[in-house]
Write a structure and sequence with these properties.
globular; homotetramer; alpha+beta
Chain lengths: 231, 231, 231, 231
Amino acid sequence: MRLTSLREEVLEANLELVRRGLVLYTFGNASGITRDEGLVVIKPSGVPYETMKPVDLVVVDLDGKVVEGSLRPSSDLPTHLILYKAFPGIGGVGHTHSRAATSWAQAQREIPCFGTTHADYFHGPVPVTKPLAPAQIRSDYEANTGRVIVRRFAKLDPFHTPAVLVAGHAPFCWGKTPEEAAHIAVVLEEIAAMASQTLVANPKARPISKYLQQKHFFRKHGGTAYYGQKK
Amino acid sequence: MRLTSLREEVLEANLELVRRGLVLYTFGNASGITRDEGLVVIKPSGVPYETMKPVDLVVVDLDGKVVEGSLRPSSDLPTHLILYKAFPGIGGVGHTHSRAATSWAQAQREIPCFGTTHADYFHGPVPVTKPLAPAQIRSDYEANTGRVIVRRFAKLDPFHTPAVLVAGHAPFCWGKTPEEAAHIAVVLEEIAAMASQTLVANPKARPISKYLQQKHFFRKHGGTAYYGQKK
Amino acid sequence: MRLTSLREEVLEANLELVRRGLVLYTFGNASGITRDEGLVVIKPSGVPYETMKPVDLVVVDLDGKVVEGSLRPSSDLPTHLILYKAFPGIGGVGHTHSRAATSWAQAQREIPCFGTTHADYFHGPVPVTKPLAPAQIRSDYEANTGRVIVRRFAKLDPFHTPAVLVAGHAPFCWGKTPEEAAHIAVVLEEIAAMASQTLVANPKARPISKYLQQKHFFRKHGGTAYYGQKK
Amino acid sequence: MRLTSLREEVLEANLELVRRGLVLYTFGNASGITRDEGLVVIKPSGVPYETMKPVDLVVVDLDGKVVEGSLRPSSDLPTHLILYKAFPGIGGVGHTHSRAATSWAQAQREIPCFGTTHADYFHGPVPVTKPLAPAQIRSDYEANTGRVIVRRFAKLDPFHTPAVLVAGHAPFCWGKTPEEAAHIAVVLEEIAAMASQTLVANPKARPISKYLQQKHFFRKHGGTAYYGQKK
């Protein structure tokens, strides 16, 4: 039962990335997890979005063993699995090569918190990982991608910083649900594009104050939030 | 009666921001005021635009007390109220996080009047506020956002300069009606994008002469205007 | 008879500017001329495109006197008239505030011929006028705009250089017909955007050689042209 | 028989370039070859895409002699023919003036391999040719364009580097089929746009390591590929 609805949620998260223009051809993938069973639903590798159905999604366990589905899972699956294991509270992961966010990953620079749009979603800069070392690339590459992310988060709360830029690669995002992971991916793309344009307008632009960063983040997150409708 | 039509005007102004691509998800809000009753109609907080109806808008008095509506008003309401109180002639306020204008706000630089497109709408640069001080952020933040705007306008005519960039945040725009406020927001986004590209083409670009600025502004505004059809 | 079809051609040229995304709200206008009668058909000032019909266009003589139509002509009409008088071979004029071309006008830099896309349409850089002097702005401003263009073309062939950037303002384009003028406006916008991105990729980019510029221009223009289908 | 289906494939490749926004008006062309007969199918010159049918495409032999069709072939045909002769394994060629890739061609800089999106398709930078010398421009220009490309590939494998930037002109792309050539053109445009934005975020950005470049390229190409579905 839970898997049936999760398949739909994961498909919907993948389609949201497409609708928002974050995905060229098949460059991107989203997944979700049922924490009780430890089963992950993920997009198949290299399959066009137009015709994708919930049944095409692949179900794997946390070791990556295919439990349901006849297609190969996304080749980035091992990265997703490492993230699910390291960040117990997350329920969805999204990965894109969206233009602006990928450009910052390629620039190998963290995205500074230049404004409140950023601070509404990220408590601090969007971090960038260390580049993978040759040995980390040679074997078990996709899992090692996950590991450099986790290492970068040694002192970071994944719910305060729900995305990372993998150096020379692209962003990974996450949230409580696949929908939230996709939402973060869309917002990150906007924040990244704004950050570039901020540098065009002022090459010496500085991050906003810690006070303003905190104000905006906690206006939307945690027990003191007052944005949106009461639930 | 007046409130009924104002609800529709305010909804329409909010939708215009969406149609013109200035709004991602729910990042933006527009409001309007009935000057006779001193009642403000504003978008509810964090509600999707697709399904928003006039009845979902919230009516408040100038102290922010909800007079009609069951949803929470936009969290930026206190900023709108300060603007309505300080600028008696305005009838609508719009706030977006549109990409280019927000980038200039994040750059904490005023937008120079680089050309006649700008001068047609703004008599001088688009100003940027001072950053809020820690105490201004800590409590009564949204109202203080309005206050730093008003302080920035000590020597400016809000009808000659119908928008401002809040430092590290985003633009606020206004006009005689909600429609006009939204129109200014759309034009400001275009002007901001052009200003960035102007700097790319010539990092030493200079504003146009005061003569040309005045010519274009007063071609469209005030008693000597001769643009458009006679009314 | 001729006026009837010219009205349709001019409306179509105006709509082409809109369809190609060169026009925000009412920022732009196109016109055409019947050389036999010396009658100019031009867009009315400040009227929305969505509902514009051929009958809404205004017919004026070369002194700007309205011959047909109940609406005011575009406020840029005097610029168009100066161009028709100075460049006898042209049959259409287009004016936009399209983002990239206007940015170069604001940068007050000519667009260098960085590549063959440019050379296919312009034999040399896209020139920029001198800024108007205070006296030229104060009275007869729109006609003086035309005059600074004409002065800039003292040694240029308007068919080899079918557009100009008015300093601090925006481009004017022309061609044998209104359709051609609009086509040039669309291509100029693309060329301007490419030129900016060329500078981002290489701030020291240089124009292509005179040989390559000539090759491409005359591949498409004049008696030696061999691009397209034989006519 | 083969020609009938190739006509459809070539038309489809041309239309893909249009759908993806790589083509303004008629700036671009794609072709395909039947290696058995040595016959090339190519877009006619200067004909609008909206109404183009398979029968409008032109069939020529490898000397450029028209074998079927009443329209003139694209003026870039001689470049295509040189590429088909020099690179025996390719089955399709695509040429566009897409904005970002053309900007790099105009910048006369190779596109560095800044990230894995690039490395998934190109094993190394996207190279730029030498500018053509005056004599190469004066006569046999389009064939000489092909020749400078081929010279640039003296030490490059056209399947590891399926595109080139012609200095001061624009990109040429190729693949095993017309569809693949068009696909490369679309991806190249994205890579070029990302590379520019990478430089905005970090003017000192460096290519990713050779290890990471190889990993990504061979994850998708050759006998060790493991991306996509098994075939």
